Amino acid sequence: MTPPAALTVRDAEQSLEPYRAGHDGPFGARQVGHLVRRALFGAPPERLAELQRMEPAEAVEAVLAAPPPSGSYAETLDILDALASVDDPDVARSVWLTRMVRDPHPFRERLALFWHGHFATSVEKVGRIRLMTRQVDTLQRLGAGPFGELLLAMCRDPAMVVWLDGNANRRHHPNENFARELFELFSLGIGHYDETDVLEAARAFSGWHVHGDRFRFNSHEHDDGTKRVLGREGDLDGDDVVSAVMEHPSCARHITRRLFREFVHPEPTDAQIDVLADRYRASGYDTLDLVRVLLRSRAFYAAPAYRALVKSPVALAVGAIRSLELRTDARAVAETLGALGQSLYAPPSVKGWDGGASWLNAATLIGRVNLAADLAGRAPQGLTVDPADDLDGAVALLLDGQLPDDVSHRLKAHQHKHGDTAGLLQALLCLPEYQLA
Hints:
This protein is mainly alpha-helical. The protein has helices at 9-15, 29-40, 45-52, 56-64, 71-82, 89-102, 107-118, 123-126, 129-142, 147-155, 158-163, 177-187, 195-205, 238-247, 249-263, 270-282, 287-296, 298-301, 313-324, 330-339, 362-378, 391-399, 405-418, 421-430, 432-435, and strands spanning 208-211, 214-217, 227-229, 232-234.
C-alpha cells in the first residue's frame, strides 16, 4: 500500500472526488450518522431517515442549508435575544447552547464553534461578555463565507483587540501580540513568516483600538511610515497586511488543513492539502464550498475517517440532546461542559482547545459518565425510540446500528432482567464508540 505521505496528486484528487452511492459503497445509516455527527452534532430518528432517502450530494446540501428561522425556533430566538443584554457569562453560555440544540439547521453554529477555537478569545481577559457574544455572532454570520472577510472582521473585533492588547499597540510603542498570532495561528502557521514581518505588521496595526465597546481607528497612534510585510512594501495598514496574508500560499494550506482535521480526520496528506488549497484559493476562499467538498468526498466516507475524532464536550452533550430530543437545563449543562474542559467563551489560551485525546483523562472520563447519566435520566420525556422495547432502535439512533455482538448480548440480557431505560441509555452513551465522532 502506498504510504500516505507518498500519495500522488492524482491519488489525492481521487480521494476528494464526490462519494457515489452504490459505486463507492452504500449510503445508509452508517454514512448518514457520520455526516450528521460531523456537521450537525446529531439528529433525531426522523431526520436521519429523511437523509437516508437522499443521494449523498443532496444530503450534504440539506445539512449545509441555512434557511431563515421560522416556527418555534424563531420564537425561541426572540426569547434568547431578550437575554442578550444580561451581563452574565453563564447566561451567555446557556443561550449559545440553546441555539445549538434547538436550531433545526445548526451547521452555522457548528462551524462557529470551530472558528471560536481557531480565533480563540476568552472572556476571562476580555472581561465583557457582550463583546464575546458579538464575536461569536460574527463567527456565525461570516464563518461560511470568504475567509478574508472573516479574518478582517476578527482584526477589527473589539473582543479580539482587547484579548491581544490592541490598545497597547501605539505609534512609538508597537505591541506584537496580535500580529504574531495573526500569522502563527490565524492564517499562515509557524515557519511562513519571520520576526521582521511580525514587527512591521504590528506597526501597520497600530492605532487599531477599542473605544468603549466599539472598534475605532486612532489615527494619532497609527504609524504611517513605510513598512515591509510578507514582501509587500509601503505605508501599510492592517487592511494591507490582511491582503498580503491572503495572497500568501501558506494561508490557504493552513486553513484547509485545519478544516480537514476538523471535519474529516486528523491526518490529511500533503497532496490532499495541496489539491484543496488550490481549490480554496480559486474559489476566493469560499469556506462553505470547501466544507462541501470535504463532506461529499470519498475521503470523508472512507474507513480512516469513521469515528476518527474524540468528541469535544460540547459535541458530546449537544449531539446526545439533539438525537434524543431532550429538554435540559442549558445552564447546568454549560457548567458541566466547563468541568469537562470546554467552557464556551473561555478557551484556555490563544491556541484554543487542544482537542483529540486531550479531552480524556481520569477526571473528565468520570465527568462524561455523570453527564451520560444525567442526560439518560431525562430521555423518557422526549425519546422517539423506546430502548426498553427496542435496543436495536436505540443503537441505530446513537451508534448507526453498529454495536459489537458481545456488548449487544450483555445489554439485551441486562435490559431483559431490569427493564432500566435510563441505565441502558447511559451505557450506550458511555461506550467508546459513542465518545468518538
